[in-house]
Give the backbone structure.
Amino acid sequence: MASVSVPTTGGRAGGLLRRPTATTGFWSWVTTVDHKKIGILYGVTAFAFFIVGGTEALLIRLQLAQPDQALLSPSVYNEIFTMHGITMVFLVVMPLSAAFINYLIPLMIGARDVAFPRLNALSYWLFLFAGIFIYSSWFLGGAPNGGWFGYAPNAVLDPTRGMTFYAIGLLMAGVASTVSAINIAVTILNMRAPGMTLFRMPVFAWMSLVVQFLLAFSLPIITVALFQLLFDKRFGTHFFDSVAGADPVLWQHLFWLFGHPEVYILILPAMGIVSEILPTFARKPLFGYQFVVFSGIAIGFIGFGVWVHHMYAVGLGPIANTAFGISTIIIAVPTGVKIFNWLGTMWKGDLTFPTPMLFAIGFVAMFVIGGLSGVTHSVVPADYQQTDTYYIVAHFHYVLFGGAIFGLFGGMYYWWPKVFGRKLNEGLGKVHFWLMLIGFNLTFGPMHVLGLQGMPRRIQTYPEELGLTFWNLVSTVGAFMIALAVLLFLINVAMTQRKPKAMDADPWDARTLEWLTTSPPPEHNFDEIPTVHALDEAWHRKYVETAPGRVVPVPAGGSGADEAASAGHGVHLPAPSYYPVVASLGVLLLGYGVVFSWWLAGVGAVVMLAGLYAWALEPSVE
Amino acid sequence: MQEQAAIHVFESEHEATSTGLPNVKLAMWLFLASDVLLFGALITSYVVYRGRSVVGPYPNDVFDIPFTSVSSFVLLASSLTMVLALASVQRGDLPRMRLWLLATALLGLAFVGGQVYEFTTFYEEGLTLTTNVFGTTFYVLTGFHGTHVAIGILMLLSLFSLSFGGRITQRNSMTVEIVGLYWHFVDIVWIVIFTVVYLIPTGP
């Protein structure tokens, strides 16, 4: 584990397959295999998609601000809400979580990189090209318009190419995520620093591990469903054709068998982030670490057994509905356990409230609301009333925006100094938080009321007589407050980039390994791989408990924190490579080929194979 | 003792990992676990739609169980040659390894050839991808499996070619082992598919 040097097999450096050498500029980013650079690429790309998806949300809210409006035609409205969902789920929350996982996991477990650096680059490029592919559908015959859930037979019978783009685009994103899941899982299981046992890992690492397993086991199911949809649309098969004896409900089963683990894929990384932030600013260890970890694992398992609660109204019968109602109530238990652990962490803590802490507390509060409305869906008769109304929209935005997005913003404020060597402005950050919290509740709080009044989802407008106008207007105003808050964040980022890079290794007095190295970390992460003796290793190197409850700083140089600095000599890092991006480009061409022309698909397949073979044959080090 | 361990690490050409399992091998196991779910969903789709076609040809009209049994046996035999290839490279016997790799690839090719022949026959008997639900689910399930076998053949032939450039040696025999894991997995999946699709009768 001391170095990641890879012996040169074959020894043919140079030649046709020379490895790229750029360390700065455009090509260094295109060819990079450094997990930190890839993490930043993920973050920037996901944030760009966040702004696009947010703009789509604003268009939806503008259309619904007043009754009987015709700002968006019904067909455009279908495309907008579909793209909003696809974007936020697959192109924002998943890759933004991937950004944190990529950047932080090797640092947190004391590794120099992920297990397969080039596969890591491949995952990023495939994700980027999947996003571009799906968005290019706007210019190539219409965007997907059948909802992010793409229900058959509507998705099959739709005459536009939109849902074909959906199927292929999500297949590409799925391959990216599967590759990344295997890569990160192997990294966490296999590349921990000496002494870093599984139960000395930070909770964020644990939650990431659970997420990788959820991805690895749920994505193949949607892969099959998407292939079936694609084949039905492109080759005229009968997977979802009831006239031929098939059953469109198969799509719903396969989709939600993936789709429900997916919601935990979206929320668990944010839960991990919050579990890192709260102890730091409560200056206490996480309350009940094992409980938090085991709850995360339990959520991972039970998450595969609740999918029918998305389908109560389909008519599977009372037995199926009851069984899944019970499992859904059960899955609320480990989630509730975590809430109490976070509260217990803050209880009697030495609390301070910088921006990351505000977002973490905001996460806990908003997630409780979303979790409770979720429990109301588990009750089958209640759900019959709520399903397909704005009550559902309110629920999942409370868990995915009030939950995931708040947690991810908290993470950005928390790790920004580590990643960029500069701290985001606290004043602007706090304004951002409060504006976003108020805007968020104004946007999605009223949707509970609208939903219980019977306002249906996915309908382009509503008549004035229904009396839904007031709360819809409030919701639209709230949405623009969120937009303003995000704008403030961007201004904050722009201002911070101008500040000098002068950040301590450990500006928050934090607890985990990534704070032992410089900010930003060197390319090889650690001059000397730390040996881990305890959970919260970094904290224990700084403080000792002299009597129960009495914590005093360790005198400088007291606890082996200053191991001999070898400044990373003799550390061989994996060399950059052209081929992840080449292979991904091949996949992109293949995708367009399946829509438009088999010749193009052939070219794409050849480019992809050429990329993969060059990848296998290129020399290990330059 | 310690020296022996050091030699072992050197021989297998990887670093000590937290679990003791090499990264590549762990990754292949995780991939195969994930692939189980892929075939799980495909087989489930076939089973759910079993006997629901409204027009023929039906399974009993087209299946030639003796023929498919023989091609199944050919595929299973290729697992044996794969094991022999791995044993050879672990002994350092490269020529023998090449022989067994080629034998494995050829047996795989024979299986895929049998599948092509089978598909052609079924097509001539009127069963296409779009004829009925049986055609749809049958061709897609067995097609996915055939694609897996074809990718396996590509990997075997790549190993075969690479062994001449000195890239496959006793020291990195694990590369052969990894491809072997994939190959055995594809075989095992076929046992399930053959049983579920061909052997369990669907009735009239």
Observations:
- Confidence is low (pLDDT under 50) at residues 1-13 of chain B.
- Chain B touches chain A through 38 residues (CB under 8 Å).
